[in-house]
C-alpha cells in the first residue's frame, strides 16, 4: 500500500506475540493448546506492590507526572543500582518509560543516523533488529551458537565492529536462550569494547534476578568501570516482580543521552502510567524476599523441561543459567516427516506442525536469528510443562 511508509516495510510484527495470539485463538475455539510462547511469569504481582497501587489511586496520584518518571521512582532506581550492581547514578541520569521496550526504542531513535550499525548477538530478542530498523539504523547480527552455549565470543565481537558501529546491544540472561555471562566472560567482551571508544553499550538486564545454580549476575559497567560513560544500563520490573502488564522499564546512563531520550518520549507517550510508577517504587524499595523462592521455582521448571526435551529424539537442549527460556536444537529432526504429513524443512515448519498435531505452541528459532531451534518459555505450571514435554516427545517419536 503506497500510503504506508517505506520504513514500516522494513520491519515485521513480533513473532512471539503472533504465537501467543494464535494459541489464544485456538483455545477460544475449544482446542486443547498448551502455550509456551509468552515471556511472562505465571504468578501474580506481589501483594505489597498491588497495595501500593491501590493506595496511590486512593491518594489521587492519577495526574500527569514528569515525562520520564516521578522523583520517588528515580530515587528508588538509583538505590537499586547502588544496592544490586555497585553503580553510582544521579536521578538526572535515570529515565523511566512504558516498559523496557520503550526505553530501548527511545535510545535508538535518539542516537541512530542512516548508516549507523548496531551489533546484536544472535539468537536475539525478536524486537532488537526491528527497533534498529525503525530508528533508521542497520542491525548487524553476530552468531553465537550452541557450540559456545549461545554466548558471543570476544573474537566474534571484534570482527563485527566497524567504523560505522554505534551500539552493541547485550542481553544477559538472554531471551531466547537463558544463557548468562559470568563476570569473567563479560570481561572478555568489555576488553574488546575498550579498544573501540566509538561504540556504546546498551545492556538489557531485564532477567537479572532470574538466575540459578549460584550464578552471580554481572553487568558491563560494573565489570569494566571505564565503560560507565558510554553504557546505557536497562532494566525493569516486568520479570522479577511479575509486573508485565504494568509497563514500567527504566535505564541509567550519561546525562546527555538521558536528556535526548526524554525529548523523544515527550513527543510520543509522555509519562508512563502514574499508578504503575508508584507500584514500581514499592517493588524496588519494598521487600525482596520473594525473589529467591521464585528463582527456586523457575529452576525446578527449567530442570523439568531440559530433561523432558533431551528425552525427545532429534532434540538437543542445553541447560541455561537464567531467565525462563530454553532454546533446543532440532537439527536431528530436519528432513523428516510428521505423522500428519508435514515435512520438517526448518524450525518454522516444525513449530507449525507441533501446534497443529499436538497442540503445543512454541516460537520457531528463525524469529530469533538462529536456526534450527525453537524457544520454550517455561513460565507456566509444572503440570502444563510435563504434558507439553510428553506431547513434544510423542511428536518427535512420530517423525520418520
Task: List key phrases describing it.
400 residues; alpha/beta; Aspartate Aminotransferase, domain 1; Aspartate Aminotransferase, domain 2; 2 domains; 7-stranded mixed β-sheet; 3-stranded antiparallel β-sheet; 40% helix
Q: Give the H and E element order.
A: HHEHHEHEHEHEHEHEEHHHEHEEEH
CATH class designation of the largest domain: Alpha Beta
Strand content: 5-15%
CATH architecture descriptor name of the largest domain:
3-Layer(aba) Sandwich
Computed structural class: alpha/beta
Main sheet strand line-up: 2-8-7-6-5-3-4
Total domain modules:
2
Note the gap between the termini: 43 Å
> How much is the average pLDDT?
96
Cα Rg: 21 Å
Helix content: 40-55%
Q: Give the uncertain stretches in residue-range form.
A: none
Largest sheet composition: 7 strands, mixed
Instruction: Find the CATH superfamily of the largest domain.
Output: Type I PLP-dependent aspartate aminotransferase-like (Major domain)
Shape: globular
Number of helices: 14
What is the tally of beta strands?
Answer: 12
CATH fold topology of the largest domain: Aspartate Aminotransferase, domain 2
Question: Would you give an account of this structure?
Answer:
The protein is of the alpha/beta class and 400 residues long. 40% of the residues lie in helices and 12% in strands. It has helices spanning 6-9, 15-28, 47-58, 71-85, 100-111, 127-134, 154-160, 183-194, 220-223, 255-266, 274-285, 291-310, 347-358, 382-397, and strands spanning 34-35, 94-97, 117-122, 138-143, 165-171, 200-204, 231-236, 249-252, 325-326, 360-361, 363-364, 374-377. The chain has a 7-stranded mixed β-sheet, sandwiched between helices. The N and C termini lie far apart (43 Å).
Amino acid at each position: 500500500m503506497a500510503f504506508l511508509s517505506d520504513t514500516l516495510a522494513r520491519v515485521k510484527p513480533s513473532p512471539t506475540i503472533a504465537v501467543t495470539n494464535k494459541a489464544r485463538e485456538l483455545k477460544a475455539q475449544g482446542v486443547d493448546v498448551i502455550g509456551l510462547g509468552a515471556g511472562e511469569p505465571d504468578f501474580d504481582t506481589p501483594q505489597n506492590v498491588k497495595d501500593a497501587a491501590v493506595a496511590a489511586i486512593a491518594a489521587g496520584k492519577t495526574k500527569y507526572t514528569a515525562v520520564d518518571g516521578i522523583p520517588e521512582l528515580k530515587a528508588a532506581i538509583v538505590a537499586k543500582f547502588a544496592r544490586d550492581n555497585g553503580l553510582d547514578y544521579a536521578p538526572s541520569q535515570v529515565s523511566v518509560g512504558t516498559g523496557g521496550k520503550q526505553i530501548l526504542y527511545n535510545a535508538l531513535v535518539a542516537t541512530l543516523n542512516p548508516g549507523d550499525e548496531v551489533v546484536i548477538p544472535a539468537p536475539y530478542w525478536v524486537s532488537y533488529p526491528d527497533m534498529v530498523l525503525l530508528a533508521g539504523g542497520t542491525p548487524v547480527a553476530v552468531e553465537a551458537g550452541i557450540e559456545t552455549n549461545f554466548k558471543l565470543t570476544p573474537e566474534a565481537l571484534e570482527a563485527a565492529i566497524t567504523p560505522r558501529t554505534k551500539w552493541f546491544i547485550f542481553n544477559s540472561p538472554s531471551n531466547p536462550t537463558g544463557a548468562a555471562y559470568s563476570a569473567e566472560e563479560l570481561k572478555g567482551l568489555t576488553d574488546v569494547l575498550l579498544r573501540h571508544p566509538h561504540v556504546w553499550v546498551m545492556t538489557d538486564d531485564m532477567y537479572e534476578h532470574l538466575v540459578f545454580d549460584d550464578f552471580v549476575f554481572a553487568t558491563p559497567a560494573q565489570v569494566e568501570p571505564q565503560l560507565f560513560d558510554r553504557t546505557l544500563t536497562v532494566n525493569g520490573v516486568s520479570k522479577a516482580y511479575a509486573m508485565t502488564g504494568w509497563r514500567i522499564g527504566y535505564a541509567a546512563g550519561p546525562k546527555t543521552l538521558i536528556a535526548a531520550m526524554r525529548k523523544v518520549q515527550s513527543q510520543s507517550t509522555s509519562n508512563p502510567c502514574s499508578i504503575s510508577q508508584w507500584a514500581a517504587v514499592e517493588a524496588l524499595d519494598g521487600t525482596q524476599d520473594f525473589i529467591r523462592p521464585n528463582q527456586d521455582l523457575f529452576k525446578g521448571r527449567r530442570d523439568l523441561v531440559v530433561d523432558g526435551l533431551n528425552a525427545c529424539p532429534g532434540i538437543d537442549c542445553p541447560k541455561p543459567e537464567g531467565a525462563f527460556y530454553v532454546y533446543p536444537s532440532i537439527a536431528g529432526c530436519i528432513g523428516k516427516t510428521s505423522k500428519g504429513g508435514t515435512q520438517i524443512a526448518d524450525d518454522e515448519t516444525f513449530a507449525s506442525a507441533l501446534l497443529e498435531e499436538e497442540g503445543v505452541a512454541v516460537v520457531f528459532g528463525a524469529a530469533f536469528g538462529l536456526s534450527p531451534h525453537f524457544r520454550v518459555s517455561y513460565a507456566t505450571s509444572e503440570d502444563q510443562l510435563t504434558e507439553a514435554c510428553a506431547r513434544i516427545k510423542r511428536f518427535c517419536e512420530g517423525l520418520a
